[in-house]
Structure formats: structure tokens, C-alpha cells
Amino acid sequence: MGAPKLNDLEPESSHMSLEEEHEEAVHHDEGPWLISYADLMTLLMGFFALMTSMANFEENQFAQVGDETAKFFGGEVEQPFQKLGDKLKQVIKEKGIDDKVIVRVKKTEIEMIFEGTLFFDSGSIEVKNSAQDVMNQIIDILGKEAPDKRFLIEGHTDSVPISQGIIASNWELSALRASAVARLFELHNFQRGQIITIGFGDNRPFKFEEDKAPNEPLTQNAQFAKNRRVVLRVMNNLPL
To answer: Under CATH, which number does the domain 82-235 receive?
Structure first.
């Protein structure tokens, strides 16, 4: 048997191939990369969770969040309905009926409250010619400035039972009056899917805003007159 070679006497543990060295280097380099990847996945999961929660917001809640965010960063809060509301108020003023119409501009809608006598004679469901003229101008503005909006039309009455004609109750009277106003929108080519009519009868008496309430309580007749009204709401989305 020949003498062992020098290489045969070296311990096996002292040898490492280039392939093994490369694998060990790759193994040591995985740590920071995996941590960064995990951080990215965590951030993405948080982002999608936030988007999901925002998708479930009601419109007024979403608007409130936007307003608060703007205030936090020192910005001004824009009222999306303000310009349209100002134009509608101008029409009412020019017609000289600003004492019979209340225009309230809110974050998510414009509310227009018309005294009932402006639209209808007592017990009638036919819109007066003078009211049609006013509504034609209002609807023209809405057609130009808000063609994609939605319109909720409410009819309201006082609590005195109706005692004439074929209309059986104040509830029916209020619903028919709201429908009569809605037909004016149809004549201006608004789609029925944009409009909802509701008759409340005497179930929702008129309420003043806190800062505009009269110093003295209204007489019964004055309160009845306030209750007889038509309300038009201009909105982004109709309630279900």
C-alpha cells in the first residue's frame, strides 16, 4: 500500500467548495430582504383594510371625514352645493317670494321649503300658474347646473281633516301634490329614476332652525300655515 498523500491527511471539515460558499452567502443575505417584504405586506394589508372601511361610510360620514382632514391641514372646507344654492336663492329673491320660500344649503343637499299656498289652492292638487313659472326657472337652473342630481319631493299638510272632493285624507292629498310637482320635472326631461315623491300628510310638522325660531310661539293658524308646504331636496343620492 502506498504512502498517503498530503491532501488525504487534511481534515474534511477544512474543505468548502465554491458552491457551498455561495449557498452560505445567499443564506446570510435573506434576512434583511425578508424583513422588508414582510413590512410591505403589512402596509398593503393595512391599506386595503382602510379602503374597505371607507367603502362602508355613509355619504355624510365621508363628507365629514373630508372636512375634518381639510381643517387639520389648514385648508378651507368647500361646500359642494353652495354655488347652486346661491343661484336658487337669487331666483327666489328676484321673484319676490323670499318670504314664502326657505333655502337651506347643507353639506349633502339643498333643501327648499315652499309655503303650500304658493303652489296650491285649498284642497287642490293642481299647481298654480304662478308657481309653475317659478318652478320652471328653478328646474332650468337644475337642468344646467345639476343634471345628474337626484330630487326628493315631499308633500305636507296641516292636521285639519280634508272634507271635500274625492280625496280621502291629508295623506293622499300630500302625495298627490308631491306628484304634481314631480310632473314639472318630467316636462323638463328629467328621468323618473332621478325623482322620488313622498306624501307625509300631517306627520311631520314644520320646525324652525334653532337660530331662526320666533321669539313668541306661533298661533295655531300660523303653525297650520307653516305645516302646509312642499319640500324639494336636491341630493347626490336618493335614500332607499
So the answer is: 3.30.1330.60
> Closest Cα to residue 233, out of 131, 112, 125, 121?
112
Per-residue pLDDT of 123-156, as tens digits, reads: 899 999 999 999 999 999 999 999 999 999 999 9
From the CB of residue 73, how many other CB atoms can be counted at a distance below 10 Å? 6
pLDDT 10s digits, 187-226: 999 999 999 999 999 999 988 765 566 666 777 777 888 8
Model confidence pLDDT, tens digit, residues 102-130 = 999 999 999 999 999 999 998 899 999 99
For residue 81, the number of C-alpha atoms closer than 13 Å in the C-beta half-sphere is 21
